[in-house]
From TrEMBL:
SUPFAM superfamilies in UniProt: Iron-dependent repressor protein, dimerization domain, Winged helix' DNA-binding domain
Record has Plastid as a keyword: no
UniProt-recorded name of the protein: Transcriptional regulator MntR
A Pfam family the protein falls into: Fe_dep_repress
Stated role: In the presence of manganese, represses expression of mntH and mntS. Up-regulates expression of mntP.
MF terms (GO), sorted A to Z: DNA binding; DNA-binding transcription factor activity; protein dimerization activity; transition metal ion binding
Length: 161
């Protein structure tokens, strides 16, 4: 599936690490230990260290990493994490509203699909549903521009202008 040149092309694994760092690190703004990432993703700590080092060593890094301080997202990493989170939450909303999926089946289905939708598909499902701001679980859907209201750990009851 083609992606627009402005979008980062990443693997499912990279996307999952970026999402984990976003969720564990107060929306990607705080450092996260490798152990916390390993637990969230159910992978070995050594695998986390290898991936984090790889993401930090890229020419345009997705993360900042200090061995004893953990890792946190760079602006590029945060943008990509929010893009994947947007995909996930739009897919959940689409599956629930348009296809009648029960709430308990949404997450796993969206996890499989979130990495593969094109920008065109993202735009079309958002438009079809009237550009929703909240998913069926009450979580804010990031805006197309990557902005996200601060949730402070609460369910989203956001209003965007």
């Amino acid at each position: 599936m083609s992606k627009s040149p402005s979008r980062d092309t990443t693997t499912e694994s990279v996307d999952d690490y970026l999402k984990a760092l976003f969720h564990l690190g107060s929306e990607g703004k705080k450092n996260v230990s490798g152990g916390a990432v390993a637990q969230r993703l159910s992978v070995a700590p050594a695998s986390v260290t290898n991936m984090i080092q790889k993401l930090a060593a890229a020419k345009l890094p997705f993360v900042l990493y200090e061995r004893h301080d953990g890792a946190r997202l760079t602006p590029r990493g945060r943008r990509r994490a929010l893009e994947i989170i947007r995909h996930h939450r739009l897919i959940e909303t689409f599956l629930h509203r348009e296809l009648g999926y029960p709430i308990d089946e949404l997450h796993d289905e969206a996890e499989r699909l979130e990495h593969f939708i094109s920008e065109s598909f993202e735009d079309r499902i958002a438009e079809k549903m009237g550009h929703p701001h909240v998913d069926p679980h009450g979580q804010c859907i990031p805006a197309k521009d990557g902005s996200m209201p601060e949730s402070h750990g609460l369910k989203c009851f956001c209003i965007r202008s």
